Amino acid sequence: MDMIVTPTGKLNGEIQALSSKNYTTRYLLVSALAEGTSTILYPAHSEDGEAMRRCIRDLGATVEEDDEKIVITGFGRHPRATKELDVGNAGAVLRFVMSIAALLPEVHFVNSYPASLGKRPHDDLIAALESMGVRIEHENGRLPMTIRGGNPRGGKIQVSGSVSSQFLSSLLFLTPLLDEDSEIEVLHDLKSKVVVGQTLEVLEQAGIVIEASDDLMHYRIPGRQKYKAQTYTVQGDYPGSAAILAAAAVTESDVVVHRLMEDSKQGERAVVDVLKAMNVPLAHENGIVRVRGNGKLTAGEFDGDEFTDGVLAMVAAAVFAEGTSRFYNVENLRYKECDRITDYLTELRKAGANVEEKRDEIIVHGRPEGVEGGVEIDAHYDHRVIMALTVVGLRSARPIRIKDAHHVAKSYPIYFDHLKSLGAQVEWAD
Ligand SMILES: O=C(O)C1=C[C@@H](OP(=O)(O)O)[C@@H](O)[C@H](O)C1
Ligand SMILES: C=C(OP(=O)(O)O)C(=O)O
User: Fold this and answer.
1) pLDDT digits (tens, 9 = 90+) for 267-280
2) Backbone angles phi, psi at 246, to 5 degrees
3) Measuring CA to CA, which residue among 151, 145, 116 is closest to residue 133?
4) How many CB atoms lie within 10 A of CB 98?
5) For residue 340, what are the β-bridge partners?
6) What digits encode the pLDDT tens for the residues 180-212?
7) DSSP assignment letter at 162
8) Phi, psi (degrees; rounded to nearest 5) at 40
9) In whole angstroms, what is the distance from residue 174 CA to residue 68 CA?
10) Ligand nearest to the CA of 169
11) Residues near ligand 1 with C-beta < 6 Å?
């Protein structure tokens, strides 16, 4: 389904932030790895959340859900010997479940999104799992894959963090279950370091003991641990809310978003500081963010690796800022649902934005006068491209048409409903 975004000058209203995708996937996983029954309150409802629900069910967890909670009885260290898993287009779900599949004799991962997840590399996690005695058939480090494990060995493990932090997170979920104690050394660099903090927080809540170095590059994980069945509450999602806040920033607005904890471990909480640095009138207290946009923004320079999933939305706001903005240290955006530098900038330029790219940087020459719009946008299967281009469409001279905008449901199925409730002129077109 395509979305027609018509220029909208004013946004007003209040919404409850959607629930965090990245916490929901983690709570579903640790609940499945516990024996006994866990409860997750206010879980995210999205395609990626559904992908993790599907995988843990296929691996033997029981999953019962009503409109407020999920109740899960896990399989501990003994997942059911399932032959095939389908993670949809969910990168973190694939990476995390690959390590659980290593506990089984043979699991095949299908490639349902050859043009998106099918293009993303998993070499670094494959190498680490192979060093633990797991055999993996793959297509040049990509899906489809067959993992032949059974009894992966703990001990000294090395994994590169230069492409994704998810490979490390995946090993941190697996190693506590192994017979041996393990030590993990992260090689090269560790991208999206902040989100590893979420992994560690959830593991601690699940009763797992892990010793992490201050720089998050070394870990000691005792083996033979048991995940505890717990009750978890999912907090609001900053990455998805970043697009709502950007929309409020580029219009005349008075927009309030609830459920955004100031002390969240989500790196994307930094988008509040980014917008403040761009002189967007914004207040953040008691978990409530209020933007009283006047459409005026000033450019800035930002380390995008601190708020990985919020970069595209902040770039969309910078499109209308006074001056030139830089978002640096963002090379790993190239390995997401699409190449979020080259593909994203191609779509921004179509809409009339003045943007440049480097290997690991996005440069935005702001256009406070707005952009032409009046074009058809390719979503590249990427929910964050869809959300960010919608922000640009609100301040274009003419409507834009975003093709296949239904892929927004990967993380935020109600994004357009939320925007519409704030007054945005967005309509599905068949
Ligand atoms: O661990 C996670 O849940 C995620 C980590 C990040 O990926 P990278 O570590 O590949 O940047 C982020 O982009 C993704 O949305 C989810
Ligand atoms: C890249 C993302 O998620 P994943 O890596 O889990 O596909 C995202 O949510 O922007």
Assistant:
1) 999 999 999 999 99
2) -65, -40
3) 151
4) 27
5) none
6) 999 999 999 999 999 999 999 999 999 999 999
7) S
8) -120, 115
9) 29
10) 1
11) 22, 92, 164-166, 169, 191-192, 195, 308-309, 332
pLDDT, tens only, 374-392 = 999 999 999 999 999 999 9
Q: What is the DSSP string of 276-324?
A: HHTT--EEEETTEEEE--BS--B--EEEGGGGGGGHHHHHHHHTTSBSE
Q: Is 20 left (phi over 0), alpha (psi -120 to 50) or beta?
A: beta
**Tokens describing residue 421:** 């409730």
Give the list of residues 6+ apart from residue 69 with CB closer than 8 angstroms, or none. 39, 40, 41, 42, 43
Contact between 172 and 221 (Cβ < 8 Å): yes
* Among protein residues, the one whose CA lies closest to atom 7 of ligand 2: 91
Q: Which residues of 245-255 are buried (b: 16+ CB within 10 A; e: fewer)?
A: bbbbbbbebbb
pLDDT of residue 383: 98
The pLDDT of residue 430 is above 80: no
- Coil, strand or helix at 241: helix
The ipTM is: 0.97
CA separation for the pair 208, 243 (Å, rounded): 34
**Known catalytic residues?**
309
